[in-house]
Amino acid sequence: MARILHLTDLHFGFHRSALEAPLLARIAALRPDLVVVGGDITHRATPGQMRSARAFLDRIEAPMMLMPGNHDVPTWNPVARIFWPFAGFQRHFGPDLTPAARVGDVRVMALNSADPYVWQRGKIRDGEIGRVIGTIDPMGTNIVALHHPLQHLPRVDKVLARRATEALYRLEGAGVHVVLTGHLHRWAVDALLATGRHPRVLQVQTGTALCARVSDMRNEFVLLDIRGTELSLERHVAPMDREGFDAPEISRYSRASGVWRRV
Ligand SMILES: [Fe+2]
Ligand SMILES: [Fe+2]
């Protein structure tokens, strides 16, 4: 059994500070084995925002793995953006931009999809798909985590990350079972599965955990409880007009037949 918590798009500097304590309390109560922080940890990648985010993350007791989002590269300093885009991130959140972790028979592998040359759109770097595929555990459950989604639903107004489609087909073919993403500040799991395009990969697109943008409607995070081929998602939602989290919405999935089905 593995309990993996996916927390993404914190946007420190433009975040709901009143929700920090309820979020930390809920995370502590869930006692996850691993917390995966999916990028956009800060809003503008300033040293002050990085320090506040670091102080917040230091209050989480569980092991953690972090990767950058497009908001974690310098916004206002073009020289830093081009020549050392991830220096601030690495100083505050660790040197490894593509960490990996293991919980029991579950392996989690991060990709860095932030592209310092393009503000919104991400990219999967040359060689990264092959690198991740080379570390897949053929006997266990394999999860890939990155900031940018690998598939967009119709009506998403952002451009899909470069090489996203190739990455998703290759990861699915190689035995990746779950992909964790953020960036869009919109929840999508069943709608992505229902497209039928990638039935062997459960794509968990989680909304923003703390961003204060009112049009996002809610803040949220998700806990994955994985037992062999069975997986349950516990989605914890805090509506924008409430300074706390509702009781979780739970949905269950199985890949016992070789493809994911909601059960
Ligand atoms: Fe974001
Ligand atoms: Fe983003």
UniProtKB/TrEMBL annotation:
Top-level taxon in the UniProt lineage: Bacteria
Transmembrane segments: none
Molecular functions (GO terms): hydrolase activity; metal ion binding
InterPro entries: Calcineurin-like_PHP, CNP_phosphodiesterase-III, Metallo-depent_PP-like
Record carries keyword Glycosyltransferase: no
Keywords: Hydrolase, Iron, Metal-binding
UniProt keyword annotation of Signal present: no
Pfam families registered for this protein in UniProt: Metallophos
Domain Calcineurin-like phosphoesterase: 3-186
Family, similarity comment: Belongs to the cyclic nucleotide phosphodiesterase class-III family.
Protein name in UniProt: Metallophosphoesterase
Species name: Paracoccus aestuarii
